Write the structure tokens for this entry.
Amino acid sequence: MSSPNTLTAGAEPMARPQVLKALSGLLLVLFVAMISSTIVSTALPKIIGSLNGSQTQYTWVVTATLLAATATTPIWGKLADLYSKKLLVEIAIGIFVAGSLISGFAQDAGQLIAARAFQGLGVGGLQALVQVVIAAMIPPRERGRYNGLLGGVMALATVSGPLLGGLIADSSLLGWRWCFFVGIPFALVALVVLHRTLHLQVTRHGKVSIDYVGATLIALGVSILLIWVSFVDNSFAWLSWQTAAMAGPGIVLLVVAVWWESRTVEPVVPLDIIRRRTPALAILASLAVGMAMFGGAVFLGQYFQVGRGYSPTEAGLLMIPMMAGVLVSSTVVGQIISRTGKIKPYIVAGTIVLVAGFAVLATVDNSTSMIIVSAGIVLVGVGVGMSMQNLVLAVQNTVALKDIGAASASITFFRSLGGTVGVSVLGAVLANRVLASVREGLEAAGLPSTAMGSTSNLNLEQLPPEIEGIVRNAYGDATGHIFLISAVIALLGVAAAVALKPTMLRSSIDLEEPPADEPGGDAGKHKVSAG
């Protein structure tokens, strides 16, 4: 697809009242995207249990959404550089609403995975476009204080989501399907608010094509490798013909994707941007943080319910310490960054705290004191609040406004990719350890390995009491192992954050002079149109 493109030269910051009106709609959009996963997180054990799904399917309900969002995020970002950002946000909300409806009517785990993948297309648009629109309205130096508002909305969604999801799943009047339906009114309200309040300049520069080939190659390569990870060491060995048949093509596709991105005119992942020091290191840190945070945190709800026997509502309450950590740290650090213009020290500190949190959680089993568990998840929340959003800000500070969409989407892409890989890998590790522990438990109890029949080990209500106890112990003891892996992965984020170049955040929307070696850096070629 090609079209006349748009670029804003010499853009001026919007007045604060204008920013706040538009920001209200954007915050609603962010709330919708966040709550779509947090509501489901605590209800997922009951959802998969009622659908008689497996641990692998449990993982893929999360992975499918993350993978679809990851694959489409760069496309949304590139489209935001070419077309109306407002229209794109509205389209993303529409896709999200449709995906939510389909998910709510799913009749088995396979249908739910497919519906969540479709919903992920809209989530990918929302998570990329909110960052892009805010960057188009607010200078980096001022953006820190608004990051506090973003952190507050994230905290509200992540606190209220698990609680609401738990209450809905426990309710005899509603049931788990309403975990998908309940976000729809928020999405529709956000759509109306944005339609009335969001007004941005549409900027064009020549003829540009969308890199659908690159996006397809990346999506296929990552998908094949994640499917392989889900089955390796369970259905077949690491060194086997099945591994060669699955991992080999996945790696080849990703190599071809890199080759294609280096030669196409408008790459979906702009290599000229991500090769620069600050974007490259911020992306590496986001990749590690995403793997650790998504991969580890997504299994906390399962640990509380399956490993410790808490209800979905109680599991939602137990997640509050993490969300409090995100809220306080993002708000406080955002204000400090806006006043000082310095960002690196807080990213470094955040990644270190994140590692510490996962190190604490690595010690948990099915009898660990909840005080220790709470301390660990508070540290994880503080680390996420200090680092995740500020890594995006560090990248946005280094690029011209004309590339803000691609740059923002790139770091969001790699963070989501890290989360997708983290959920898939850690889910596979958890599934294998639980399976081995359940077999050992059945053998120790003098029960045959076929004692569970065709019943899923997550369908606890249908299991005999003696087998239910074995399954709970297996999940409780296996969870600490995946948090240990998360801590090791998060160390890569610390290394990347330490290597970031110290810099002051700029106070202008656009770079004063786009770098000469930047594609399209000649501002004189661009024109501005209203839209």
Q: What stands out?
A: The chain has three domains: 15-198, 211-265, 269-507. The chain is about 75% helix and 5% strand.
